[in-house]
Amino acid sequence: MYRGSLVNIRHQSIHDMSKLAEFMCTPRYIETHVYDDPRFAYKEGLEKKFKERMEKHDHNELHMVIETVDSKVIGAIGIDGNFWKNGLTWMYSYIGDVEYLEGGYHEEAIELMLEFLFTEGNARKIKVNIPSNDQYGLSAYMTKGFTTEVVFMEDVLCHGKYIDTYDMCIFKDEYMKTYKLQKMGQ
Amino acid sequence: MFTGERINLRPQKKEDAEYISKYQQDPDVLDNYFMGYTLPPLKEFVERWYDHLSTEKEGYGFVIENKQGEFLGSCHTMWMNMRNGTTYIAIFIGHPEYRSKGYGTEAMKLLLNFLFNEVGLRKVKLNVFGFNKRAIRCYEKAGFKVEGIYKQEIYRYGEYHDTYAMCVCREDFNRGNCSCIEEA
Hints:
The complex is a heterodimer of chains A (about 190) and B (about 180). Chain A is an alpha+beta fold and about 190 residues long. Chain A has a single domain, classed as Gcn5-related N-acetyltransferase (GNAT) (Aminopeptidase, 3-Layer(aba) Sandwich), CATH 3.40.630.30. Chain A contains six helices and eight strands; from the N terminus they run ββαααβββαβαββα. Chain A has helices at about 15-25, 25-30, 45-55, 105-120, 135-145, 170-185; strands at about 1-5, 5-10, 60-70, 75-85, 90-95, 125-130, 145-160, 160-170. In chain A, a hairpin with a 2-residue loop joins β7 and β8. In chain A, α1 (about 15-25) crosses α3. Chain A is globular. Chain B is of the alpha+beta class. Chain B has a domain at about 1-125: Aminopeptidase, CATH 3.40.630.30. Chain B has a nine-stranded mixed beta sheet with strand order 7-8-6-5-4-3-2-1-9, with helices on both faces. In chain B, α1 crosses α3. The longest helix of chain B has 17 residues, at about 105-120. Chain B is globular, with a radius of gyration of 16 Å. The interface between A and B is medium-sized, with 24 and 23 residues.
């Protein structure tokens, strides 16, 4: 488990699926996950998916929950792809509990994940795709040093109109400069 | 089948795996086509991939052949998303004598015409390695524009290279690029 002052991140367990399914049915989640077909998640379906994922034991994926320091699950974070030949890692994250959208919870979860991926996972370049209607997500990733590489214009459908999506990334070299300064400061 | 001036596009068959794997062993194709290792794919691998393509709900694979029916190359869709009206595509001209002569551009226009005006897609996307100048020129001729650049995205020849994200929209394509196409 990686611990911060506001949140911790830990491996997902089957007991988290009910809460995650609840988050995945919220309008905000559906609106900001625009590559998926419109649908509603249900607990049993997520549990099945979770079991299959565990059995597959894919080293290119990692799925964790974001919880507050008093163990309340508020979202999820992880990697859903890793191309180690080219040193590319695809990351995702979301805050499902809208009460925690502000206040730095998402930012700290991203920070913990980046620390793990760069200093333990030996990632080189971490990538993320965010739709333009996810202003909280865009802001959180930009705060943590992600920069925009590609803007896909009018790429995905949301509420009857096509909106842009952003491919963002952060390199290990850039991250480590800040990381080392922070460590020296401590 | 879709016919152009010098080439035809026909749906891919399992038997084409032999030609596809043969031409994908060409270093020029390997270097420019695959994100992964530059190791020649086996025929069995291509057959498996064909099985996947033919069972996928929304995916298309075509063989590019000349008017004599000779295999020149192949093109296919990836990650088609009907909700958003988008897809990624990939294309290669395997036969060395047919490279840099406009066959790729013609094939691309036939493929785009099919995807935009038959399938009903809105936007077609692709990624191309920055060092593959020939392909970039071909895509630009077919109407693609650069949407952005992925910095240091692919490791090849001992160093990291950029990759270009390119796209073309239906309106832009239909405004200027359909004149040479007739459907059979």
